[in-house]
Amino acid sequence: MASKYIIDYAEKLKNGELKQIVGRKKEIRRVMHILLRDMKSNPMLLGQTGLGKTSIVIGVAAALAAGDCPPKLKGRTVVGVDIATMMIDSKTQAEYEDHLKEAFQELQAAKGQKILFINDLGFLAMTPNGNHEIPRFLKPKVLDGGIQCIVEAELNAYKMYVETDPDLMSCLQTMYIEEPTPAEATDILRGIAPRLEEKYGVKIPDEILQKAVSMSARYVKSRLFPEKALDLLDEAATGLMMDLDEGTTKDNVLTEQHIANIVSFWTGIPMDKVGSEDKQKLIDLENFIGRRVIGQPEAISVISGAVRRMKSGLQDPNRPLGTFLFIGTTGVGKTELAKALSEFMFDDETALLRLDMSEYMEKSSVARLLGPPPGTPGFEQGGVLTEAVRLRPYQVVLFDELEKAHSEILNLMLQLLDEGRLTDGKGVTVDFRNTIVIMTSNLGANLPRYQRMEFLRKNLRPEFLARIDDIIPFHGLAEENLLAIVDIHLNKFVKRAKAVGLRAELSLEARKWFADEVFIAKNGVREIKRLIQHHIENPLSVLMMYDKVSGEDLIKIIRPKDKKGVEIVVLKPEEQNKQLEEAVTVETKMDDGVDDRPPPPPTFKLNEPGDEYADLPAWKRAALEAAKQQGSAPAESTPAPRLIKVPVIKGFKSTLGKGLGMPKMPAAAMAKEMSEIPPAPETPPSIPDVPVSETPPAIPTADGTEPVPDVVPPPVVTPEQ
Length: 721
Description:
The chain is of the alpha/beta class. The longest helix has 21 residues, at 479-499.
């Protein structure tokens, strides 16, 4: 009855259900040594997942089955208890315990010939109702020697179930499993490679085995040998088999590129950065970062030098790739530089873990970073810092506003900065050697350079400052830098608008207004985002809600001369075409660089302000002055002279985009049109006595009709609103 829950590993090996282990002879011999002892004859293999603990036990089972063992162990077998099947078959707690009793009675009746393998201490202690305790009927049988066992456990389960129980400590012999060296991992792969070649129909050269080990060692820091190298080789061979089956390749030899593809998929590191470096990008690093971070040449230069040092391999391999302290006021580009650095290093701006230290001002917040200790709520989730780096070891870690963190966190960071590792709440060591650690602070930001370090020493411990590679000051943004920064953020808005099917353009005057407002606010770059939201995105979203704008419309953000802020103008397709036609008539500069346009009409000198025409519009003042000089109608009824002017659409071309590519009139065609213009009469024609309008005359269109715009101005949001 109970035999259905007993797993015979020798039988599984014979049937091919388990794979033969390669290597680990030293560990297998050590397990046999403990099994022969009189006291503490129950070996407990302790170590992290992926070290091959189960493989070692399978190796012991294979050695016992083959008789490759000490004489006193011959005839003995390694067995297990199928707890999963047992729990599925048990409807109640009592039924589950009955199945366990029957299984252990069978093992006890074997009188030591069957060695029980407990492959998951925590799972064995898990009963159907969720109680975490070793069954009371198993413990006495292990203690009195009635059942001999081999236990596999991770460090957290060991601390939870064994360290707290002196009786179990007295009967279990701890055996720590160390991670194999790269050379040992390569030997393991050599033993497994023939099996993979036969299964997948591929060829795996020995140099590829070494490459799988070296790449997994360099890039896959969250896992351990030999598991990570085995998985890498297995997945790469599987991918090549799929390519062969699909006909995308005919070469069945596994290459370095296949290995690099899998590493790139696992880690998120771009494929071109796996195994190779783009030297030209490193040389041009200042320009790359300078396109995003404006006005901080000193900070960019220091960071660029540090990155090139990292890539050359000259940095300390036992520390993070780089550790930096950014000093500066808010909004000067500290976070933006961190994002630019993550984009360059990992081709992904999101490869950035940002921790706001204002959230970690209490001593208890240390547990949030590392993870709570075993037995406390949230233990399974791990720490905010350690778990994020364990899952993604290649990234930039940003500690924002460092001065606000609790002193215990600063003590914790001493180990991180010096040794490149931290131990989480589960007792697992997390590797930070492939991260770039950046800390930002406002301490001493407004002080001169010679006073800044003294101020930092008073507020931060000297041993902490000594572990930082570079302390980089960020200067306040100059007025000439703001327009370039504004353009970067406005370009982002234009891209966002394009993503939702809208076309947007901004005039030069509008851009300058944003820059002036940011300079006045003295709040750095963050003020730009607020202004864009308030003056563009909010009113534009209202127009979208009322269906006042569509994908065919052109959204122009302009700076009105008589209003504050900026104004949104929506041009319908017909209005865009009209403006295009008018703009084409202006583009008369010849291909040879000679301007053949007709001379401008004569201008009239206006009277100085304070005369009788001072309160009139400029065009009306010019007309009245001309009429007065010619002695025609009275000033109060004189119309504007009919001057020939070429209409000009100011600010029509996009200041952020490439414009509309308006064609130019060839020189020959322009010369022909100019020759057909009739000469002006020798005497000016008389001007009829027509009442003067208070508005400028409309410019007639090509068909002779006066354009009547049918555009309802959209709401304009000003700072006062």
